Amino acid sequence: MSMSDPVADMLTRIRNAQMVEKKEVNIPASSLKSAIASVMQQEGYIESFSVAGEKAAKTLSVKLKYYDNKPVIDSLQRISKPSLRVYVKSTEMPSIMNGLGIVIVSTPKGVMTGQKAAAQNVGGEVLCSVS
């Protein structure tokens, strides 16, 4: 069975794992999911991630981060969906919680936060928001 939106599945698995206070969640790996996890790690929303396995059986293991027994990630939402893609220019980059959260954007220069994309003057597809 094929999945219509693997990125939404990744975000849902992370949300569900945090609700039951798991330390780690395993997700089928892809290069886009690894790039999203890398941005989340750089911004301090997850502790770490690793990719294990070979070819089609690769697994992305994400170690979740907690502070005072509460998840660091308060909200994790998919913005651009397969049925409705959302593209923005560098000057129209959305702000989440007045700058307290981030948007993750897929640009021609790679996957990065909305702030970095605006600083590099590139737009792209808004994948998700994290706060």
UniProtKB/TrEMBL annotation:
<comment type="similarity">
    <text>Belongs to the universal ribosomal protein uS8 family.</text>
</comment>
<comment type="function">
    <text>One of the primary rRNA binding proteins, it binds directly to 16S rRNA central domain where it helps coordinate assembly of the platform of the 30S subunit.</text>
</comment>
<dbReference type="InterPro" id="IPR000630">
    <property type="entry name" value="Ribosomal_uS8"/>
</dbReference>
<dbReference type="GO" id="GO:0005737">
    <property type="term" value="C:cytoplasm"/>
</dbReference>
<dbReference type="InterPro" id="IPR047863">
    <property type="entry name" value="Ribosomal_uS8_CS"/>
</dbReference>
<keyword id="KW-0699">rRNA-binding</keyword>
<keyword id="KW-0689">Ribosomal protein</keyword>
<dbReference type="GO" id="GO:0006412">
    <property type="term" value="P:translation"/>
</dbReference>
<comment type="subunit">
    <text>Part of the 30S ribosomal subunit. Contacts proteins S5 and S12.</text>
</comment>
<dbReference type="Pfam" id="PF00410">
    <property type="entry name" value="Ribosomal_S8"/>
</dbReference>
<keyword id="KW-0694">RNA-binding</keyword>
<dbReference type="GO" id="GO:0003735">
    <property type="term" value="F:structural constituent of ribosome"/>
</dbReference>
<dbReference type="GO" id="GO:0019843">
    <property type="term" value="F:rRNA binding"/>
</dbReference>
<protein>
    <recommendedName>
        <fullName>Small ribosomal subunit protein uS8</fullName>
    </recommendedName>
</protein>
<dbReference type="GO" id="GO:0005840">
    <property type="term" value="C:ribosome"/>
</dbReference>
<dbReference type="InterPro" id="IPR035987">
    <property type="entry name" value="Ribosomal_uS8_sf"/>
</dbReference>
<keyword id="KW-0687">Ribonucleoprotein</keyword>
<dbReference type="GO" id="GO:1990904">
    <property type="term" value="C:ribonucleoprotein complex"/>
</dbReference>
